[in-house]
Amino acid sequence: MDKQHEDSEENKARPGILLDSDEKSSPHHRHLHHRHSLGYPLPSLVELHIHLDGSFRHSTLFELAQKKGLQLPNGMEPTMENFLPYICVQSVCKSLAEFLEKFPFFIPMVAGNVEALERVAYEFVEDQAIQGVLYTEARYSPHGLTADKLKAQDVIEAINRGLQRGMKEFFIDVRTILCCIRSHPQWSMEIVNLADKYRSAGVVGIDLAGDEHNYPLDPHIPAFKRAVELGIHRTVHAGETGSPESVRQAIELCHAERIGHGYAIIEDPSVYDLIRRKDIHLECCLTSSIQTNAVAKYIPKDSEKQEKHIMLHGHETTTTLHYHIKSRKEVWHPIHHFARDGLNFSLSCDDPSVSQITIEHEYQHALADLKLSPAQLTQCVFNAARSTFLNDNEKQLLIQRLLAKYIPKEIMTDHFHDNMISNTPFTKNT
Ligand SMILES: [Zn+2]
């Protein structure tokens, strides 16, 4: 981050927790413990790869759809039960493209409507707070939410209003990442300019999202170079359904500091080594990697195929998930290898309302099915914290807050604390 911009961002009063040490003063924070239905204390998590436009509440979408006179295909009765298959994944998709087909159905319920945009942003903050997410970076494409009625900046301002209101009320910190879209390079330079303009309103970076098979990143390179000049942070979706080369290009040509997904690096030791050497953060999304079939090509031939319902808060969702993640001999998912090798990765939901998951589900899934150890899961949280796009001051405050939640104060030493801040893993990977 360029020093001039960093200094100007420091000590700006934002409504979350990072610059306010009096967390216990919030009655809403206590209230959240009652809303959390799992019956144990809230975890303290950091989530970096979550699409705001894939996180709308089903009930809100249904309500907004009804206001617009919801009609389902083939004259189907417009009930919530019949509506869900159009907005959520029910099982494994054939491809990422099939997963993404849900979006054109429900985005119009929210797009172009400033009240709806503000509402879903506010609800997003509440939903993250209920799950014990202390800090999150929500990403979205402003252009994808204009519906040709609003300007991209109107979308950003509406979303910022909802996020600010949510942060004040639910006492967590949310920042935003604006997405460039592979198929629309004409938007990318404007995204960089908007990220610059709204930097003081919580925009911390840019992303490149969309179909990496059919749309190369070349036309987006000038925008990402400009982002570097302006000190705007960068993440790129790469190596999800694409190749390891796509990850290398994201790092070398778009100067990506983080990679969305990146599973394909498992195919190329030189890219795997590049990620490790540069300590590039991998934003991994376990359920989405299976639902989109992104990791199917790595399945060993002798793997067991099983299907189970995704459980949320003790209730079955309508989504079933093939979780052939175990061969007869070993657990094989790329994330399992990332953990074993101590790569800098974390867990996120990607599109939780489309996948019907929560961040807790992702941690449970990684523990039960990928056999990650509790220490590795804890490492994920701290990997995420040290890889946020916050400025150094805020990042240190976040890490301190997490340390206070995870490590008893009595055993904390200055040496231990300093090591954590300087990116040294504090748990050994097994
Ligand atoms: Zn994503």
From TrEMBL:
The keyword Zinc-finger does not apply. InterPro entries: A_deaminase_dom (IPR001365), Ado/ade_deaminase (IPR006330), Metal_Hydrolase (IPR032466). Coiled coil: none annotated. One of its GO terms (molecular function) is adenosine deaminase activity. Its EC number is 3.5.4.4. The keyword Zinc applies. GO terms for biological process: adenosine catabolic process; hypoxanthine salvage; inosine biosynthetic process; negative regulation of adenosine receptor signaling pathway. GO terms for cellular component: cytosol; external side of plasma membrane. Residues 1-13 have a biased composition (Basic and acidic residues). Its cofactor is Zn(2+). Keywords: Hydrolase, Metal-binding, Zinc. Residues 46-297, 332-402 form the Adenosine deaminase domain. Residues 1-35 are annotated as: Disordered. It is an enzyme of class 3 (hydrolase). Belongs to the metallo-dependent hydrolases superfamily. Adenosine and AMP deaminases family. This is adenosine deaminase.
